[in-house]
Model the fold of this input.
Amino acid sequence: MNKPVNVAVTGAAGNIAYSAVFRIASGQMLGKEQPINLKLIDIEPAMQALKGVQYELEDCAFPLLNSISITSDLNEGFGDCDYALLIGAKPRSKGMERKDLLKDNGKIFQPQGKAINDNARSTVKVLVVGNPANTNALITMHNAPDIDTKQFTSMMRLDHDRSKAQIALKYGTPIKKVKKIIVWGNHSNTQVPDLTKAEVNGEEIKELMNTNWYKDKFVPRIQNRGAEIIESRGLSSAASAANAAISHMRDWTSGNSDWLSIGQISNNNPFGISEDIIFSFPSRCSNGIFEMVTDMEISKSIQSLVEKTEKELIEERDSVLELLK
Ligand code: NAD
Ligand code: LMR
Done:
């Protein structure tokens, strides 16, 4: 057995966390040899509900769960943390875009960035889930100047997995036969799911990008899947979001032979995307790090879509400059 690691989760009394924390405690994120101290963070008014989550976690008697703490104090919650899942933020409701949340949610991430900077381990891996996830990740990163920018990511894994699942359905093939999916840009309705390098059963499927199915069905469906779920459920995705967060952290830590989509700092990218935004690039994970896939170009047929999602991220960033100091 390894030494326990500290996993901080914000929004721990909320819907996504209610799906995520039990799976983290059971070893689905960091493996069956990794004991965990769970550090659950929420705001003061949610402490009673969070106590209930703590009781339920205790009642599961998870062998890997070494300790559970609950707090609304960010310095305590992020103390010595090795992993930080920043989920706590308002979800949107019907008719809203995720960027409409920036005014309320952006300010949550400034103090969290500072607390991570001052209290987390220098090797901490940070995943921002709370929307708008990319710009919130940028705010967190800017407020944690002592931590390597590569340790801050935003969650694009749900978009990636949604794309994978739709391709598997289209071909009537098992998910594991679908590889090298890419989603570029923002976790918003401008994101660009890209099949340029995608493979099904080892064969490239890029010709699909010339079809009406790709332009009129696949791309809008992935871009608007979150809204489709809100429309149907009356609430935003929770179990699938928790699953994506766990998969993101698991693969970042333990590797994955397939390509993944990871929201990351855009500095020094070879694709001509502006610097200082958190942008989703195709990535490979191994040995506890992720690296951008750089031996490819953005296909001309989607260049204008990629520019649109880039422009949106620049606008989001420029609307919260006061939080980046
Ligand atoms: P929820 O309303 O059920 O829970 C949010 C929790 O966050 C609540 O317990 C609330 O008290 C807490 N919270 C609010 N402010 C906080 C703060 N400053 N510090 C700590 N906790 C705080 O919402 P949910 O369904 O769990 O969704 C959470 C966020 O995740 C939303 O912004 C949602 O839009 C986003 N989301 C992102 C993705 C993605 O793919 N990136 C997917 C699904 C949902
Ligand atoms: C999603 O993609 O499901 C989440 O970002 C929730 C939302 O607001 O769509």
Summary: Residues 91-92, 98, 131, 158, 226-227, 229-230, 236-237, 241 surround (2S)-2-hydroxybutanedioic acid (ligand 2) (CB under 6 Å). The radius of gyration is 19 Å.
